[in-house]
Design goal:
By secondary structure, the protein is an alpha/beta fold. The chain contains 9 helices and 8 strands.
Length: 238
């Protein structure tokens, strides 16, 4: 099948946002759970390496906050609601992974979309700063999806597809979803199932983001060990 669209995760897939995410999380903790600030700061927020360990070890952001950062369930819910606001206010620089701009432009003939737990406004600002915003026909962020429908629930993916092709799309589609977390592979499988035979969704793992897809129980169709691998993987379908 020929590829109809490429859907992307954002953090850890298109951009290296770890320094910003650590800074934002520290700010939110200082408000929601000050007992976890200062000397009691969770160790997983003390270095990029430890942040990656926690981020890729947790099944979702809720588990990350509770199991790795030590928040209570109620604190986690409050923190989640503050994320978009703090992302937009925080000025820590975020950069595309080296070589990613070339990948996007190489497949500029295809519509691109983003399904992320980042803020749509924040994502759009970064894409526009690189001059590639117009290639992304749909951006579905944290603030566009209710708490119960966050990834790996397929809601955001279906919304992204509908924003690109329209709600009445009936032709069979070939889609690719690229993400750096095992939950992203679950997400790709769930989108395909939710579309009920109207789409094939190829799952690609962004292994260049210090994730370890080889250890995942839910296996992706392809692993990109570096950004340049995406050129060949996408090229097979484009």
């Amino acid at each position: 099948m020929k590829l109809d669209a490429i859907l992307w995760d954002y953090d850890g897939t298109l951009v290296n946002s770890v320094p910003k995410n650590i800074a934002i999380t520290k700010d939110i903790i200082s408000v929601v759970a000050p007992h976890l600030s200062g000397e009691n700061l969770p160790k997983y927020l003390t270095s990029e390496a430890l942040y990656h360990e926690a981020n890729h070890g947790a099944k979702n952001w809720q588990a990350l906050y509770v199991d790795y950062y030590g928040m209570s369930h109620d604190e986690m819910l409050v923190a989640g609601g503050m994320w978009a606001e703090h992302q937009e206010k925080n000025q820590t620089p975020v950069e595309l992974f080296e070589g990613m701009e070339a990948v996007i432009n190489r497949f500029a003939n295809l519509p691109h979309g983003i399904c992320s737990q980042n803020s749509q406004l924040n994502i759009r600002g970064v894409l526009d700063s690189y001059g590639i915003g117009e290639l992304f026909k749909a951006v579905v962020g944290y603030d566009d999806v209710s708490n119960g429908n966050q990834k790996p629930h397929p809601f955001g993916g279906i919304k992204c597809v509908e924003n690109i092709f329209g709600e009445g799309q009936s032709d069979e589609l070939c889609l690719m979803y690229i993400g750096d977390h095992e939950a992203d592979t679950h997400f790709a499988r769930n989108i395909e199932a939710a579309l009920g035979g109207r789409a094939k969704v190829v799952a690609v793992a962004a292994g260049y983001s210090r994730s370890e897809p080889e250890k995942w129980q839910t296996k992706p169709d392809y692993i990109a060990s570096n950004v340049d691998d995406l050129l060949a993987i996408i090229g097979k379908y484009a």
